[in-house]
Specification:
Length: 393
């Protein structure tokens, strides 16, 4: 079997790459080693959410995906930072209207995104999606890559895209090293309903150990709803995971400083380790690394998946500009040169923000308060940082 492109990995990034290249007319095979989860109530369903910032939403629009998702999303008009380390809450709002006619982004459930991606793939006859199938071996030469599948098929392609995660087997096989930092934290993700309306405001509450972030969702059973990502020390998060629902609701309401009133858990809780990671190379012979195979950042400022969609967009533009040269060394070198500096800046910047947010003690709390006040008070600085966070500078 021969394809233009083989994508190893069927997470959101891998499926988005399959839709993108399929919509552009390339013959694509996308492999997902995980068996499909067809019901959001089943074990393994991804109930987390992602905020798609303006550039990412525009890209999803161009590949015909956003019309399938828009009604399921919640706009993020205001980013609110709450410093809850002192006796009184300090609130600072950053309004998208200061720099744009559009919201900062739109929050969307990962499950909804996956459903939209699969619906779009069904309409692309040139894309073959094989769930439950993985790559077991890959060999490359200057003219092509040859991939062996767990189904014992062998496939040749012009370009192999590794979207196979932070522990990418394809990256390991290519002997490409990574720079890795473990922050000693876990992120706990879940969704809640609450009495107070979120008013399309994403609220990040800082105390110690890491931020507690509430991101707007559409209403749930007639009540306002938000997604939560709570970053804290490993032991603290494990303790929270062990609480029964009533005690957990009390704990998250207290940790949120009551900014949206009483919180009530409406989904399962999932936790994952907080690390940053950056691949030394974003490409190898006939191979491109995207998403977490190339970079991992802590879940602050919605940078992770938005950075991954930027990888796909650049790779797609290069392929469309010279379809006959897809997967060749010059194309992959340009991809690496375009994306790695951006990813490196995000890894450094988000890592620094995370260190500042988890620092404890009165000195750290005072430094955070002064820094937040300066950023909010100095208008040019505030606008510059908002544009930088969106990636629209």
């Amino acid at each position: 079997m021969h394809k233009d492109i083989v994508i190893s990995g069927g997470g959101i990034a891998g499926l988005t790459a399959a839709v993108s290249f399929g919509e552009a007319g390339f013959e694509v095979l996308c492999l997902d080693p995980t068996a499909p989860v067809t019901d959001r109530t089943n074990h393994g369903a991804d109930l987390r959410t992602t905020a798609y910032l303006q550039p990412a939403q525009a890209f999803l629009q161009t590949i015909g995906l956003w019309p399938l998702l828009a009604d399921r999303s919640a706009p993020l008009q205001i980013m609110r930072i709450v410093d809850a380390a002192g006796e009184a809450l300090i609130r600072k709002d950053f309004n998208a209207a200061d720099i744009s006619d559009a919201p900062f982004g739109w929050n969307l459930g990962n499950w909804d995104m996956r459903e939209g991606l699969l619906t779009r793939l069904d309409a692309l006859p040139n894309v073959d999606f094989q769930p439950g199938v993985s790559t077991t071996d890959s060999q490359t030469r200057s003219t092509e890559a040859r991939v062996t599948l767990s189904s014992h098929q062998r496939v040749s392609c012009k370009l192999l895209i590794a979207a196979d995660g932070r522990d990418s087997p394809i990256r390991h096989a290519a002997k490409i090293r990574t720079q890795h930092t473990d922050f000693g934290q876990l992120a706990l993700s879940f969704a809640v309903s609450h009495k107070g309306p979120h008013e399309n405001i994403s609220t990040e509450v800082h105390k110690s150990g890491g931020p507690f972030t509430l991101v707007p969702l559409p209403d749930f059973n007639g009540k306002p709803s938000s997604a939560v990502v709570w970053m804290d020390r490993v032991n603290a998060i494990k303790e929270m995971q062990s609480l029964h629902t009533e005690a957990f609701n009390a704990a998250i309401t207290e940790r949120s400083a009551g900014v949206l009133g009483q919180l009530e858990l409406i989904t399962a809780r999932s936790a994952w380790p907080i690390i940053s990671q950056l691949s030394d190379q974003f490409c190898a012979e006939r191979t491109a690394f995207i998403a977490e195979a190339a970079h991992v950042v802590p879940p602050i400022g919605a940078q992770g998946l938005n950075l991954s969609l930027g990888d796909i967009e650049v790779l797609l533009d290069l392929a469309k500009a010279a379809p006959a040269q897809i997967g060749e060394a010059d194309m992959l070198k340009r991809y690496h040169q375009a994306r790695r500096p951006i990813a490196q800046s995000r890894v450094i910047g988000v890592g620094a923000l995370n260190r500042a947010s988890k620092a404890e003690g009165p000195i750290a709390a005072r430094a955070r308060a002064l820094g937040l006040d300066a950023i909010h008070r100095i208008t040019p600085l505030r606008h510059q940082l908002m544009q930088l966070g969106l990636g629209i500078r």
